[in-house]
Amino acid sequence: MAESKTILIAEDSSVILNLTKKILELQNYTVVSAKNGGEVLKKVQDQKIDAILMDLNIPVKNGMECTKEIRANENPQISQIPIIAVTGNANNYTLEQFKEAGINAYLPKPLDFDMLVQTVKEYVH
Fold it and tell me: Is 107 part of any domain?
């Protein structure tokens, strides 16, 4: 059996986090979580992450700032991690801003779990 891929969920709502985690674990992903931008940056340094589901409205450093920092990392294993933005108010950002920050894909809230699984599979092989 293939080794399980690790998805980091950056989300400060425990309800959304727990639901998303369950959905991804059913797909045989290993899930780690971060409640704020500081934790996100620490986790990508500490372990191999295959993709990040990044809520854009997390405390400490928001998802856009985190994404930019990850993209600027010297280690390609970190700077190349697929980042999927998750946000309830994407209207605050343009697709152009997502691209500039280095976001690979974007999912609106409330999350469509079929779309979530499909998007993660697209970026995590």
Answer: yes
Contact 47, 6 (CB under 8 A): yes
Residue stretches of the chain with pLDDT short of 50: 1
Range of the domain at 113: 6-123
Element (H, E) at 38: helix 37-46
Residue 1 lies in a domain: no
Q: What is the pLDDT of residue 72?
A: 98
CATH number for the domain including 118?
Answer: 3.40.50.2300
The confidence score (pLDDT) of residue 3 equals 80
Q: Of the candidates 42, 48, 46, which has an alpha carbon nearest to the alpha carbon of residue 61?
A: 42
When divided into structural domains, the chain yields a total of 1
In sequence order, which residues have a C-beta less than 8 Å from that of residue 77 and are 6 or more positions away?
48
The pLDDT of residue 24:
98
